[in-house]
Amino acid sequence: MSEEILTSNFFQLFGLPVSYDIDLNQLNQQYLLLQKQVHPDKFVSGSDQEKRISMQQTSWINEAQTTLKDPVLRASYLLKLKGIDFNLENETTKDAAFLMQQLEIREQLENVKSEAEPLDVLDSMAKEISTATQTMMADFVKSFEENQLDDARECIRKLQFMQKAKIEINKLTAEIEDELLL
Amino acid sequence: MALIQIAEPGESTTAHQHKLAVGIGLGTTNSLVATVRSGVVNTLPNTDGQHLLASVVHYGENHIHVGSDALQYSVSDPLNTIVSVKRFMGRGIDEMATEGAHYSYEFINTDSAVPRIKTRAGNLSAIEISAQILKALKVRAVDTLGDEISGAVITVPAYFDDAQRQATKDAARLAGINVLRLLNEPTAAAVAYGLDTGKEGVIAVFDLGGGTFDVSILRLNKGVFEVLATGGDSSLGGDDFDYEIAKWIVSQAANSNADSPAIKRYLMQQARNAKEALAEQAAVEIKIDIEEFQWTGTLDRDTLKTLLTPLVKKTLLSCRRALRDAEVDKKDINEVVMVGGSTRTLLVREMVSDFFERELLTSIDPDKVVATGAALQADVLVGNKPDDEMLLLDVIPLSLGIETMGGLVEKVIHRNTAIPIAKAQDFTTYKDGQTAMAVHVLQGERELVSDSRSLARFELRGFPAQVAGAARIRVTFQVDADGLLIVSACEENSGVEASIDVKPSYGLSDTEIERMLRESMDHAEDDMHSRSLREQQVDADRVIEALDSALAADGEQLLSAQEKTEIMQARQGLLDVKTDSDKEKIERAIKQLETTCDTYVARRMNSNIKTAMQGHSIEEYATDKQSAAEET
Questions:
Q1: Residue A58 lies in a domain
Q2: A97 and A169 share a domain?
Q3: Which of B133, B260, B501, B502 could form a disulfide with B459 if both were Cys (CB 3.0 to 4.6 A apart)?
Q4: Mind telling me how many Å the CA of A128 is from chain B's nearest CA?
């Protein structure tokens, strides 16, 4: 546990090693332990100053937990700690073959509702993407550990595409399921 | 107001005093107040033994009535008898017109961002009307408990947006209530359920009230109530059921005289009676006899099912989305807790039970459970249970975003993010010499500005003129533990704090609130002044006392000689003005001392956390199953 909540990095905050592989169970336990100390509910009769510090610290802990729980956010945070600070939104890969593949996925998603069994199609697409994501994650970890940071960064750019596709698949699945319910 | 109370949260430096704190369930149809006495939580009845206060306000010729006294005027004086005012909280004039279709009020648009309802007592905002209900509950609490209450936890629908939450807080302010926390209704219900049964695991709370619907998925673990996701609809409830039935009556009767306010109100009441009767019996006879409207007919459960199914289905879609957001499978839910008066409707129970594929928990009192949970939290918040491990971790129900080019919304904070949370967003200028800019804040899940709810427009001013694109204005969006948004801005290159003009899209401005407060104040201004002066003096004593005891405990370890000297100087500064009759002077000296102690307080908090974390092994907090966030 670090001295200063607001100046420690997210891994230190939860007593975790600075690494892609973290114990999510420990993350959650440490998260709750910290919350029990700093949450604004503990300072309702405190001074304005205590309330403000408590709110800042709790916000920071929440931000840290959200970042470390999500694999892509965690990976890009690791790069950030290495001095590579980039805005995820503005990053894009130049790998033409990969981009082509992504375009195909998009097209497939756009037309999925006219398929005979759209939910089955979405299901199998989700599985494919999940497998590809895991391979890509492994690539990231390897590059990162070998300190090939440019390669690691490229992995994150691609992972972002995969994550967006996954979100889109979930959204379409939800829409179709909702329509069936109504 | 102790300066440093961190060493033992909840324990004051003086002998512990039990504080009176209450929980208030401010409902669309009924409201309640509850408190913990001798370790037992109870809702408080009025002198007639009634626990529920009908959320109705009647503005009579000479009197304002609240509760069942007001309800009796509902049909005879509909325009001055305001029911379901909660549905109008934080709403704009267009939304009020849609919501108001059920009740036939006359809405007035004013210069203010808050529309008014026309009554005999003048044009009133929903906030002022709500404050009457809160005042009645406060009076009940003070009369029953025999003393002033130090604060209240007030419940709001989890799905209330920023404007609706702010409106609720403003109403409490008008009623003279110190709000300890705005607590989400399903979370309050979970607290009451959790503490009562001692059960742990993942639960779903299905809360369908008179005008609002929430569903929350929570994980209960060793006193921690962690909301995983929440969903709902802040304009869906039992009133809408009644409206469907009332429309059915009109169509069955083929009567074209149903437009008068009195008839509308009467039909809503008859519809509600019929709906309630159908919870007990298979069919009910409805007899309409008012003015030019006479009709008799029968409503059976099958017809009711046809009328209400589309509405209940809407609640199920919210349940499905909440489960998805929480990444929880239906089969991993340990219990589905039913809350809110509208869960008495059998069709709701059937459809929800089918959806979750299980028996529901319907044994707790759906009306009282929310106020009960709020009272339990209030008791902990004021420090009556210093050793209590209870902690509520809640989320923001709707995403917050800002307007970008082309009328699109860029999300800054996503829905179901744990609160408090802060996110910074950088902006730049597009013209040379630009020294001001506007930021439009929106809430909701849609992508277009026109489909989202406008919260406020901020004008940032006073940052130094630079060439286009060179300025870097960092805007910080902070959501506090009440789910309320606070915005601050700073120009990064110069460090200049930009000033912000907030134009809330639906809220009351500070000046309006002050005016209302002045008007509603029972005390003369002098009274107010001497009272707040006394409070300030007491505060000064507390601050000094807390500082002294903190310094005695760890001043030597945590402070350098220089820092200690500075603190002692500020302490002397406060001692010097403490008995002054100028309230502002004392206030400034307290502020000064607090600012000087900033670093010290932060160090104490951190060293305290360190001690606490060392004191426990991780295993003590184990057994919690982490969801498979790793698998993408």
A1: yes
A2: yes
A3: B501
A4: 11
Integer angstrom CA distances of residue A92 from A99, A155, A160, A161: 10, 10, 9, 9
Say yes or no: A60 and A112 in one domain.
Answer: no
Give, for B1, the enclosing helix (H) or strand (E).
Answer: none
Interchain proximity A44–B382, CB inside 8 Å: yes
Is A54 domain-assigned? yes
Q: Is residue A74 assigned to a domain?
A: no
Of B221, B478, B626, the CB nearest to A25: B626
| Residue B621 Cα, gap to closest chain A Cα (Å) | 6
B 204-233: CB under 8 A from A: 221, 224, 226
Reply yes or no on whether the pLDDT at A67 is more than 50: yes
Specify the number of domains making up chain A.
2
A92 with A176, same domain? yes
Which element (helix H / strand E) includes B38? none
Position B4 confidence tier, pLDDT thresholds 50, 70, 90: very low
Q: Which of B422, B621, B632 sits opposite A163 (nearest CB)?
A: B632
Nearest to B483, CA basis, from B247, B165, B269, B117: B165
Nearest to B103 by CA among B210, B209, B30, B31: B210
In this predicted structure, which of A136-145, B11-20, B416-425, B472-481 has the lowest mean pLDDT? B11-20
Q: Is B629 on the interface with A (CB under 8 A)?
A: yes
- Clarify whether residues A32 and A102 are in a common domain: no
Q: What ipTM describes this predicted complex? A: 0.89
The model's pTM is 0.84
Q: Does residue A2 sit within a domain?
A: no
Domains of chain B: 21-197+369-385 (3.30.420.40), 238-306 (3.90.640.10), 400-517 (2.60.34.10), 529-608 (1.20.1270.10)
Spatial separation of the C-alpha atoms in residues A163 and A71, rounded to whole Å: 10
Q: Which of B418, B608, B630 is closest, CB to CB, to A24? A: B630
The torsion of the CA quartet A15, A21, A26, A28, rounded to 10 degrees, works out to 100
Q: Which of A36, A53, A88 should we substitute to test contact with B (largest number of B Cβ atoms within 10 Å)?
A: A36
Q: How far is A96 from chain B (nearest CA, A)?
A: 24
- A60 vs B contacts (CB less than 8 Å): 422
Domain containing A157 — which CATH number? 1.20.1280.20
Tell me the nearest-neighbour CA distance from A36 into chain B, angstroms.
7
In this predicted model, what pLDDT tens digit does every residue of B211-228 receive, in sequence order?
Answer: 999 999 999 999 999 999
Q: Which two tokens stand for residue B323?
A: 């489960």
Chosen for mutation from B606, B607, B611, B618 (greatest number of chain A CBs closer than 10 Å) is B606
Residue B71 has pLDDT above 60, yes or no: yes
Residues A172 and A117 in one domain: yes
Residues A52 and A113 in one domain: no
CATH of the domain at A56: 1.10.287.110
Task: Out of A28, A53, A55, name the one closest to residue B480 (CB).
Answer: A55
- Angstrom distance (rounded) from CA A76 to CA A80: 6
**A63 and A92 part of one domain:** no
d(C-alpha B470, C-alpha B465), whole Å? 9
Strands B421-427 vs B473-479: parallel, antiparallel or unpaired: antiparallel
CB-nearest partner of A41 from B151, B481, B608: B481
| pLDDT tens column, A72-116 | 999 999 999 998 876 666 677 888 888 898 899 999 999 988 888
Query: Rounded to whole angstroms, what are the CA distances from B251 to B184, B245, B276, B301?
Result: 38, 10, 21, 18
Give the domain range for residue A152: 88-181
Q: Is B557 on the interface with A (CB under 8 A)?
A: no
B376 touches chain A (CB under 8 A): no
A98 and A17 in a single domain? The answer is no
